[in-house]
Amino acid sequence: MRPVTPGDDGFLFTLYASTRAQELAAWGWNPAQQEIFLRTQYQAQARHYAALYAPEGHALIEVDGAPVGRQWLVRTQAETLLVDMALLPSHRGQGLGTRLLCAIQEEAARARVPVRLNVTRDNPALRLYTRHGFLPVPGSDPASPYLELHWRAPEGDSGTGPG
Fold first, then answer.
1. Which residue stretches, if any, does this entry annotate as coiled coil (predicted)?
2. What is the pLDDT of residue 162?
C-alpha cells in the first residue's frame, strides 16, 4: 500500500473502467461512447470522493511494485468506513481482497469500532463481505441498488481476525 498521488490518475481511471466493463458490455455502445461515459463517471466519482473524504485514507494497492488496485478508508473514533476497494480483474479471486478485508477488520477490532461500507447488490464482492460477517444495516431501502453493510467484532475479539 502507498498513498495515491496525482500521477496515479491514469491507473485509477483504468481501474474504474475495469469495474464497469461487464455493465457496459451489455449496453452495446461503441468504444468511443464507452470512453466518454467512463471518463465522465470517473471524474464525477473522483470529485465526489474528494469533496467528502480526507485523502489520507486513499491508497494504491501494489503487488511487486506495480499498482493492482485501490483502497479508500475513513477512520474515525466511531467507525471505519470502507469507501472503496477495487482490484484489477487479473488480481480478483486470488485471495488479495480477503487479506485486505481481514486487515481492515483486525484494525477495527483493535480500535473497537465497526466497519461500514456500501456495495451494489449485484457486485460479486457482496459474497466476500457476507462471508466475513458483514450484515445489512437495518432499514436499508430494498429498492436501492446499493446495500449498506456493517461489521463489528464479536465481544472479546481483540483483533485476532475473523475465523
1. none
2. 46
Instruction: Report pLDDT digits (tens) over 32-85.
Output: 888 899 999 999 999 999 999 988 999 999 999 999 999 999 999 999 999 999
Q: CATH number of the domain that 97 lies in?
A: 3.40.630.30
**Amino acid (1-letter code) at residue 112:** R
The structure's pTM equals: 0.86
Phi/psi class of residue 159: alpha, beta or left (left: φ > 0; alpha: ψ in -120 to 50)? left
Domain membership of residue 95 as a residue range:
2-151
Q: What is the rounded distance in angstroms from the CA atom of residue 145 to the CA atom of residue 143? A: 7
Domain assignment present for residue 129? The answer is yes
CA distances (Å), origin 1, targets 19, 65, 101: 20, 10, 13
pLDDT at 40: 94
Q: Among positive and negative, which fits the CA dihedral 69, 27, 47, 114?
A: negative
The structural domain count of the chain equals 1
